[in-house]
Write a structure and sequence with these properties.
alpha+beta; 2-enoyl-CoA Hydratase, Chain A, domain 1; 6-stranded mixed sheet; 12 helices; 38% helix
């Protein structure tokens, strides 16, 4: 009798909760659909009762445990980016986005073999521990992260300054596995750098500028303007914008970057979801100081989210030629929906579209010129770009890594040189 009463109470609460949710979020749903949902809840209630009563190791299970596990499973079944966050995880997320947090000094990008270190910041815990670009993170706190969404891996690495985190890394595919215990620290975050991983921004040959955007943050547009000003003062005639292994970041930062290269009022990206509030067109509002600057963009399998927005817009609008490899294909919007008990849903609610209405999500951006790199070449280039990384390698390995050419950058620079030469000849004929 008591068990039936508890089950009935749980069912009633679930039905009430569902009804409230339907009224708030799905007011336009048909009555028949609501009735189907109620019928399915009866099945859920029955399974809940059977698991609680008969599961062999279920003596300590509570209805709260089972329902939260069911909610997590429901979110996990949708896509890799939707999740149920317990109150502690939600608080961590708010700390990361609103307050001060500590880090290790690494930039991580999604790769087929797992989350991979693509840059190591100078004078940080990661550099002091000897972590190198190309190292693959296999576990955090003893738990595998090989198939964990990149955003969740980054969240696990971050935390309060002076707290520790345990990592397991593998030095390249098939390489040696090492364990690290690192103490988090406040990391100076620069999102725009030159080819040497610094902020001097020298020109390449023939007046070709080069800028690498590591991720899109609040100060990215400001940092890019500083880099472009220095390059312009040095006589820049064309620009290579490197978005390789850029995992994304803030949508607003991506739009602000695009405003340098397109006229005001130009559509650069749109979002579309199931509701009118999620259908938004983003247009450039800046001065477009570099609207006519010859431009080439580098992308690869680690270019995701905001990086794909920038690359896709510049390609769609005919403002740049893209070189490299197919991008990652993460073009969805996650909304944070707080719940009454302090937990929250991170729910995919919309998708990004390029100006010509091409979907980015699960498709990625295809470069105009496919220029593949081997895994060994990619790791060597990451090492070349990380301050002090080459010096950590054994002599023979250091020599091999230093000799690798960045053929993607070379192809992009050659394209710009050809474009400048063609423009000069046309002007001469005029």
């Amino acid at each position: 009798m008591k068990r039936r009463l508890v089950t009935a109470l749980v069912s009633a609460l679930l039905l009430a909760h569902l009804g409230l949710g339907l009224r708030i979020y799905f007011s336009d749903a048909h009555a028949a659909e609501r009735e189907d949902a109620y019928a399915d809840l009866a099945l859920f209630s029955r399974v809940l009762q059977l698991v609680k009563r008969d599961y062999v190791d279920g003596a300590g299970l509570t209805y709260r445990d089972l329902i939260r596990a069911a909610v997590k499973g429901m979110l996990d079944s949708l896509d890799p980016h939707s999740e149920f966050m317990e109150p502690s995880s939600f608080e961590d997320l708010k700390t990361d986005t609103e307050g001060e947090f500590g880090g290790l000094g690494i930039t991580v990008a999604p790769r087929p073999e797992g989350p991979t270190v693509v840059a190591v910041t100078d004078e940080t815990p990661a550099q002091a521990a000897g972590i190198l670009p190309g190292d693959i993170i296999t576990a955090v706190e003893g738990r595998s992260v090989t198939e964990t969404p990149l955003g969740d891996v980054v969240t696990k690495l971050r935390g309060k300054p002076d707290t520790t985190v345990n990592l397991t890394l593998r030095r390249g595919p098939g390489g040696e596995t090492r364990d690290y215990t690192l103490k988090r620290a406040i990391i100076p975050v620069w999102t725009v750098k030159d080819r040497d991983g610094a902020r001097a921004f020298p020109l390449l040959d023939d007046g070709i500028g080069y800028v690498r955007i590591l991720q899109f943050g609040e100060k990215t547009a400001e940092e890019l303007e500083t880099a472009l000003r220095r390059l312009r003062e040095a006589g820049m005639r064309g620009l290579v914008l490197d978005l390789r292994d850029n995992p994304g970041g803030l949508l607003e930062a991506a739009v602000a970057v695009l405003e340098n290269f397109v006229p005001a009022g130009q559509l650069v990206v749109s979002t579309e979801g199931r509701h009118a509030s999620q259908r938004v067109a983003y247009r450039a509002e800046g001065r477009g100081r570099h609207q006519k600057l010859p431009l080439a963009v580098l992308i690869n399998g680690g270019s995701a989210s905001a990086a794909e927005i920038v690359a896709g817009a510049l390609q769609d609008l005919g403002r740049a030629r893209l070189f490299g490899e197919q991008s990652f294909g993460k073009g969805s919007v996650q909304s944070i929906l707080p719940l009454p008990d302090g937990s929250a849903l991170r729910l995919t609610t919309a998708k990004y579209y390029t100006p010509s209405h091409k979907v980015i999500h699960e498709q990625g951006i295809t470069p105009d010129s496919l220029v593949p790199l081997t895994d060994d070449e990619q790791r060597a280039l990451w090492t070349q770009a990380a301050p002090g990384a080459l010096e950590q390698l054994p002599p023979a390995e250091r020599e091999r890594a230093a000799a690798v050419r960045d053929v993607q950058l070379e192809r992009a620079a050659d394209y710009l040189r050809g474009s400048l030469l063609l423009s000069a000849r046309r002007a001469g004929r005029g």
